[in-house]
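[job 0412] stage=fold_complex status=start
inputs:
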Amino acid sequence: QVQLQESGPGLVKPSETLSLTCTVSGGSISTYYWSWIRQPAGKGLEWIGHVYTSVYTSYNPSLKSRVTMSVDTSKNQFSLKLTSVTAADTAVYYCARAVAGTDRALDIWGQGTMVTVSS
Amino acid sequence: DIQLTQSPSFLSASVGDRITITCRASQGIFTYLAWYQQKPGKAPNLLIYSASTLQSGVPSRFSGSGSGTEFTLTISSLQPEDFATYYCQQLNNYPFGGGTKVEIK
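[job 0412] stage=fold_complex status=done
writing structure:
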């Protein structure tokens, strides 16, 4: 079955760029919406955005100026870049799949990766 | 921006209880709503989409209802594995509600 795995640095310095990759195994990356969600420790979920075949993206308005998402179909991966990070961006970052047939609900999730912003 | 407000934020219940969690949207969102369950240290798990459609593999004791601005998630008979935090999510602009933690009484 389809599985997702996040990867990337666990520690990022303030003002630098956070870069994460999600590898999709067991299925094609085509024809789905691929999302990023984050969760600060002890807090709720925040939708960051999603990408569809690198042609269409939608981002959370509160993060839009700092976020870029893309898809690499040759590697079956999609990625997140978040610029100018601060301590407020410290969180567990999840990648997830959204399916058009479920009104784009997030039906498959990665296990999450902890990213700490600190000097 | 559309805001989702969940209530209660915290719920204490016993095994076998019927519980209901409410999610209110600041504007009408038709039936574009999903419910997720999250256990500590784990990724969320999709329970319900389109307000009332049960995701494949989810037990039938979970049900969702509502449209427009008011939605509910009901667990008909709480099981030990159901103690978790539940989140609603709007499926147009994608914000999440603040969560409802269900704990054992």
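[job 0412] summary: The longest strand of chain B covers residues 19-25.
[job 0412] exit 0
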